[in-house]
Amino acid sequence: MLEVKGLKVSYGGIEAVKGVDLSVAQAELVTLIGANGAGKSTTLKALAGLLKPAAGSIHYNGVDITARPAFELVREGLALVPEGRGVFGRLTVEENLAMGAYSRRDRAGIAADHDRVYGLLPRLAERRRQPAGTLSGGEQQMLALGRALMSRPRLLLLDEPSMGLAPLIVQTIFETIRAIAAEGVTLLLVEQNAKLALETCHRGYVMESGLIALADDASRLLVNPQVRRAYLGE
């Protein structure tokens, strides 16, 4: 579903991503782990059309999307849940979800997806009339996930969904991620909690200084001595 070759992304004169190759198959869960500043979030933003690559190519479902803007990619089924959630604080939960479906015109489908999101994330149903800015961090993360689902993504990019959240809320978020995957949505996950990410996903990439340092099945990365020392605190 996703094929990335030689991706390079620069900020000013600084090359943050230095030639990344990665792939994600349909219905696969893949994680990208690494230290802060390794280039993980920059990679996701480039894949989502929010940053223009300096070099390399991005193919989605066999089509070159390297120069395509984000709003077009959302319509094609590629959605990003950004780091920091990015909810619209003055809009209600329900209005935020409606924003996720802004490119759609199928009213019956949108209504069905509202119900689907509330079924996956019942806390949002309880808060549906509440301004998003008054939600807890965990509830805002749930809302960011739900808003992305309203675009009916086939490929969902998740950037640090557990950041700043209490362990019990993280558990809820990851249960939701597994439920979304069980519906057939393909996932590429950037996550600071490397152990949880590798336990959840099929395959993993380890990113260091803008490059892919390791790539393997998640189960093998979990027992890799280098990964255990650097990212699992062992």
Task: Provide a quick synopsis of the model.
The chain is of the alpha/beta class and 234 residues long. The chain has helices at residues 40-47, 70-75, 93-100, 107-120, 122-126, 137-149, 167-182, 194-200, 218-223, 225-231; strands at residues 2-11, 14-24, 29-34, 55-60, 63-64, 78-81, 155-159, 186-190, 203-208, 211-217. The strands form 2 sheets. It has a 6-stranded mixed β-sheet, with helices on both faces.
Q: Can you characterise this structure?
A:
This protein has 234 residues and is α/β, with parallel strands linked by helices. Helices cover 38% and strands 26% of the residues. It is built from 10 helices and 10 strands. Strands 6-7-8-3-9-10 form a 6-stranded mixed sheet, sandwiched between helices. Strand 4 and strand 5 form a beta hairpin. Helix 3 (93-100) packs parallel to helix 6 (137-149). The two termini are 34 Å apart.
Brief descriptors of the model:
single chain; 234 residues; alpha/beta; six-stranded mixed β-sheet; four-stranded antiparallel β-sheet; 10 helices; 10 strands; 38% helix
What's the topology here?
Elements: E1 2-11, E2 14-24, E3 29-34, H1 40-47, E4 55-60, E5 63-64, H2 70-75, E6 78-81, H3 93-100, H4 107-120, H5 122-126, H6 137-149, E7 155-159, H7 167-182, E8 186-190, H8 194-200, E9 203-208, E10 211-217, H9 218-223, H10 225-231
Helix pairs in contact: 3-6
Report the portion of residues in β strands.
Answer: 25-35%
Give the overall shape, derived from the CA principal axes: globular
Radius of gyration: 17 Å
Provide the low-confidence segments as ranges.
Answer: none
Number of helices: 10
Give me the side-by-side strand order of the main sheet.
6-7-8-3-9-10
Q: For this entry, what is the oligomeric state of its chains? A: single chain
